[in-house]
Amino acid sequence: MNATGMQNKVRAGSAARVTPETPMVFEWQDRQIAVFNIEGRFCALDNLCPHKEAPLVDGKPVFEAGQMWVSCPWHRFLFDPATGRCDRSGFDTRAYPVTIEAGELYVWVC
């Protein structure tokens, strides 16, 4: 939340740039945020894995245990793209809502 208790709507870039094969990273303040297109649904996570700071943007979407995950490229930790929950205890990351307006992606950060 910002000083007024609101989330910040941050333009991340063109939705056309983010395909299932090509996620993107943008910076906001001191954060790197990865944006993914998973089966046509856009989601955003902190880019650095909380385990060893691997770039999640280099990970792949995987279907496991009945749901879609983003896989860490180094140690295969799995992250729920909607919530940031990790399949291993103690390693959750931040997830951010994403909206599309006039073909542009906006990530809601606090």
TrEMBL record:
InterPro entries: Rieske_2Fe-2S (IPR017941), Rieske_2Fe-2S_sf (IPR036922). It comes from Gloeobacter violaceus (strain ATCC 29082 / PCC 7421). SUPFAM superfamilies: ISP domain (SSF50022). This is Gll0366 protein. One of its GO terms (molecular function) is 2 iron, 2 sulfur cluster binding. Residues 13-107 form the Rieske domain. The keyword Hydrolase does not apply. The keyword Iron-sulfur applies.
